Inverse folding.
């Protein structure tokens, strides 16, 4: 009886929390809807004011108060919403993926695409994390063209080795970077080199600066982004490939993005 009930579940849902992601959200929706269908995408809108979450074909659920400041309480509310939503979706779906607006999961040519990977391997592994960083000789992104075709280098980043494809209730840390056991100990995750989480946070200098440099975004202090008050500090952050060492990352280096990935996003 239990087996019959499980078979009635839909295959896979994808969800994330978004706030004023007018650049990344359309890419996110296009990419994941092509894999899993528009009806299986869930947008948790955390008080967007840029119109990016209006009139979407996928599922949109608003939460939070517009005047809320990005405090520890706010972070807790976001984390609790993620836990609540993925448990809710697991009642309806075999697998649930939780990814941010700038996170795109894809696979090596060993598999046709992410959907096939999940059908074959399920969700036993964590992704291998990479972050793309715009180089000084690269132009601003043309957001209407394939993103990876316009960039040449990325870094392998172990703090993005995240297990974000799940089939049961999961005790994520805040940010979903780690999994916790019963005693709040961090569980060692099996990493699959064929499963890639591509992080686009620093893919475009102009857009990143718009969000993170206070002089470019006076409301940043109200909408939840880490702030840089000086352009020099922001610039140093943007080009520093080992910036994440302070958050537990290992030393890394720039490498060339393989050509087989160039047209994925």
């Amino acid at each position: 009886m239990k087996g019959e009930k499980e078979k009635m579940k839909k295959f896979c849902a994808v969800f994330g929390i978004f706030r004023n992601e007018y650049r990344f959200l359309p890419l996110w929706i296009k990419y994941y809807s092509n894999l899993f269908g528009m009806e299986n995408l869930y947008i948790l809108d955390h008080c967007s004011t840029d119109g990016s979450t209006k009139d979407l074909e996928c599922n949109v659920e608003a939460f939070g108060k517009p005047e809320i400041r990005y405090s520890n309480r706010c972070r807790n509310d976001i984390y609790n919403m993620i836990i609540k939503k993925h448990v809710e979706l697991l009642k309806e779906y075999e697998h649930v993926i939780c990814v941010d607006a700038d996170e795109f999961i894809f696979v090596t040519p060993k598999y046709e695409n992410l959907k096939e990977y999940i059908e074959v391997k399920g969700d036993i592994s964590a992704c291998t994390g990479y972050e793309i960083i715009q180089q000084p000789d690269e132009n601003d992104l043309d957001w209407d063209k394939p993103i990876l075709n316009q960039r040449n280098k990325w870094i392998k980043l172990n703090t993005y080795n995240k297990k974000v494809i799940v089939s049961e209730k999961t005790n994520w840390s805040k940010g979903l970077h780690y999994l916790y056991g019963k005693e709040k100990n961090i569980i060692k995750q099996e990493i699959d080199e064929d499963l890639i989480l591509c992080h686009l946070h620093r893919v475009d200098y102009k857009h990143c600066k718009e969000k993170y440099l206070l002089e470019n975004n006076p409301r940043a202090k109200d909408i939840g982004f880490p702030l840089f008050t000086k352009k020099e500090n922001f610039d140093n952050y943007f080009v520093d490939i080992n910036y994440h060492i302070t958050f537990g990352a290992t030393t890394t280096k720039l490498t060339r993005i393989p050509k087989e990935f160039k047209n994925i996003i």
Remarks:
- The radius of gyration is 18 Å.
- The longest strand covers residues 191-202.
